[in-house]
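Q: My collaborator sent me two sequences in one message, no labels, and asked for predicted structures for both. Can we handle them in order? The first one she listed is below.
A: Yes, handling them in the order given. First sequence, followed by its structure tokens:
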Amino acid sequence: MDYPAFLRQVARGEAPPIALLHGGDSQLLDDALDAATRGLFPDRALAAWGREVFDGRERGVDEIVRSAMTLPLGSGRRLVAVRRAQALTAKGADALNVYAASPNPATCLLLLADEPLRASRERRVDHWLLAGLPATAIVELPTRGSRELAGWLRQRAALEGLTVTDEAARLLVELTGEDTATLLGEARKAALAGGPDNRAVGVKDVGAIVGERRLDAIFDLTRAVERRDLAGALKTLDRLLATEDAPLLLAVLARDVRTAWTALAWRRRGRPVEEIARTLRRPPAVIEALTGPTSGSEALFAWRLRRCWDADRRLKSSGEPRAEMAALVADLCAER
């Protein structure tokens, strides 16, 4: 089952007897738990009697299974949720597998793991939770690129009555990163910056919470890299690193590389500058500069993006931020 299908199912009050949601997006997990709660308990006061939430770091599988086996008081169903389910120890595998084979139909057991559980570069093998549950009970959270995140933020904010412009959403993604809980929190703060009754978030509101001077400095870095002004870019980078996290600056630089590569590819396939500018939301003059005769090849932009990924890997592997970012900026400014 995919995540949107799960939300639709629980919204109808048809939460499955057992489900495991896993991925690195804590906001999506919170939304799933909230949707299941609303679906099972239209009267939220009843949730106090029918819902129990555990922390996988503090409770064992046996205690959780006992709670799931408990019958609800009166009519309806129970909801047993386990946050940070990835912390449950494997010694409880047998008990959970036995329960999963014949779950209590009067309970929805919702396991919420705030990290991916599939084998990956960080995880050598699948987490044991994946082995004992039926495939239909496992929901892998979707991942999004920065462009999709901006759209998600606008849609999610709209559920709370906030109207976020496309430019403001993209700016929040650039400056805040890809953690959806943080993004939504910053959108709420930006709305409040416009007054207690303000429900619209624009670039000005985002600037009010992050600071106009901070915005100007970050854009100074990207403009210097676009001009291949190595001295200016390194000077701006040094100033920014005194107050900004390296991953944020790296995300902004990688975004610009992807944008420039896309613009170049479209221009060389015959799309007009004005159309590219509208789609990428950049001034036509900027598109002209990015795709001019000295802009380089698509292979060069592919290399630059791989270089950003390499810098990201090094930072996550305890690389020294100032040195890694300086080397990256030098490579992005270099003539090749």
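Q: And the one she listed second?
A: Here it is, processed independently of the first:
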Amino acid sequence: MGFYDDGQFRSTKNRGPGSSSLLRWLAVVVVSAVIGSATTMAAVPMLLQANVIQAPAASNANLQNMSYHNLQPVSVKVNDSVVQAVKKVRPSVVGVVNYQMLPNSSGTSTSLQEEGVGSGVIFSSKGYIVTNYHVVQGATKVEVVIHKKTHVYATVVGYDPYTDLAVLKVPSSDIQPSDVAQFGNSSTLQVGEPAIAIGNPAGLDFADTVTTGVISATQRTMPVIDAATGNVIGEQTELQTDAAINPGNSGGPLCNIAGQVIGINNSKIVAHGFEGMGFAIPINEVRTIINQILTTGHAVHAAIGIEGESLSAVPAEYQPNVPVNYGVWIVNAMSASAKAGGLQHGDVIIAIDGHKVTGITSLRSILWTDYRPGQNVTVTIYRDQQKMNLTVKLGELPPPSNSPSSSSSGSGAPNSSGGSSGTNPLSPFGAGN
């Protein structure tokens, strides 16, 4: 894959008809070139003497005395900005090793074994590290490798399956102030600006591998997959980049040219025929989830209590009779508060407290960014041609049914019914763990 043969380069064996004529043509070209060069070399001195052409400004003596040892070397700086950005960020990048109790080769017993390796980013001098949830999912113990040499067990502070993020803690004595990453602002990113990914593709043997590219898009709706089951548990808006992201990069930083972390790498498209389509969780969302985990031990997501679909994705035969082409079509009002607020099947949500709702991802972003469970919000809907404002009390999004409800209190990651910190089985999306 990746090799293109257009027939221009052929083996010298088994030439077909016409090969001899091609050789004769090439011979004529070569002989003509030699004759032309010789003629030019002989004619130039005579033309100079006759003043038909002018010599360069330097004297003939200087030209004759010029030699190659007079040439001075030229120093060229290439991608100096990238080099400086990498130097700034690299100390904050760590390896994250997932250890699980796995069967021995005989199959008669189990022992603690390495299941997968990902990456992480130090964001606090107190020893806090952010990584992907799927990197530590199912682990009995989690080991962090700092500066490619210091191995230390980490405690899982908390995690959020819905955003695929987890926060780890190592002793602060192992962290230097220069190891702490600086977070940027993902809301100001522009398509086409440089992007730098750093991580551990293929494990610790290739630790701190740097790849570069650009921001390909700033708002891609991607599925969130539970690594243990392969089930889709939600969607989130992510950054797209063509910087190479490979298994082992998950949890590592996507940086800008200033050496600021602008995203946490978590997936790429690995379907046949695709190349250079990697994805990262925007750092503004990462910052929000980190703060929630550090405050409560887990992420808190407000929910409106419905099962819905983006109106643009609803098949034509089910399209409601509404005067808009955006919003969220309610399939079912699930919670008691949603029903009490008056939401029902067929309604189309177009705004929350005046914030325009364009689809499912937009609704989730508004609720998760600006609201907490228990708050009352004004939900603007269309019910057929009638526009209505309803008051609904927000609930809390429950954890996925196949995920543990709380994190481990000891050294290690939350246990699950299975899974691995290996490649996130996004199908056809494969994560860069």
